[in-house]
Amino acid sequence: MTYAIVLSFDDDSSFPIKQVFKKFCEEKISSILYEINMKPHITLSIYESIDAQTAKDRLFLFCIENKPLKIQISSIGYFPSEESVLFLNPKATNELLNIQQKIFSLFKDFEAEISPITWVPHCTLGINLQKEAIAKAIDIIKEDILMTKEKPFYIQATTISLVKFERETLKIDYWIDYPLKG
């Protein structure tokens, strides 16, 4: 099993992203995120092994002391890896970077797959995209998520979530939300 600690969004911020998931599925560009009803999020850290109760306790206390974040999406990005990932790229503000560093420090007694040095903040929109579908996917994103200098796209990150999942199938075993309150 794999565990992730993620920054989740409010319903208004999630809606246009879920619309992209749906259209990607309808157009046979990338269907898995829509089919498993994935919540839009930014992954803060990933662990192959973690004590779930310890994580739940720490996240509960962490969220009492930390407030929601307003995050500007600055661009559309692409990881040309084996998984071929298309994503929204958040502006890496000190506030966003500090949240990730705090989570990393809070869980330093567990071995993380990513560190603050190698972390690339992103909100995945599609995975396993065929090269021929990328241009169409970008057009769909531009239809549902307007990002201009005059009218930037913002997301409201309101929750830290603990997610237990199976990596190979992207099957989610559980997703526990902790509202940011600070």
Could you please describe the fold and organization of this structure?
With 182 residues, the protein is of the alpha+beta class. It has a single domain, classed as Alpha-Beta Complex (Cyclic Phosphodiesterase, Chain: A), CATH 3.90.1140. It is 32% helix and 32% strand. The chain has five helices and seven strands, in the order E-H-H-E-H-E-E-H-E-H-E-E. Strands 1, 2, 3, 4, 5, 6 and 7 form a seven-stranded antiparallel sheet that branches. Helix 1 packs antiparallel against helix 5 (134-144). It is globular, with a radius of gyration of 16 Å. It starts with a strand and ends with a strand.
Write the layout of secondary structure elements.
Elements: E1 2-9, H1 11-26, H2 32-35, E2 41-47, H3 52-65, E3 69-79, E4 85-90, H4 94-106, E5 123-126, H5 134-144, E6 153-166, E7 171-179
Antiparallel strand pairs: 1-2, 1-6, 3-4, 3-6, 4-5, 6-7
Helix pairs in contact: 1-5
CATH class wording: Alpha Beta
| Annotated CATH architecture | Alpha-Beta Complex
How large a portion of the residues is in β-strands, by DSSP E?
25-35%
**Cα distance spanning the termini:** 31 Å
Radius of gyration equals: 16 Å
Q: Assign the CATH topology.
A: Cyclic Phosphodiesterase, Chain: A
What characteristic shape results from the CA principal axes?
globular
- Main sheet, how many strands, which sense, barrel? 7 strands, antiparallel
Mean pLDDT: 95
Task: Count the domains.
Answer: 1
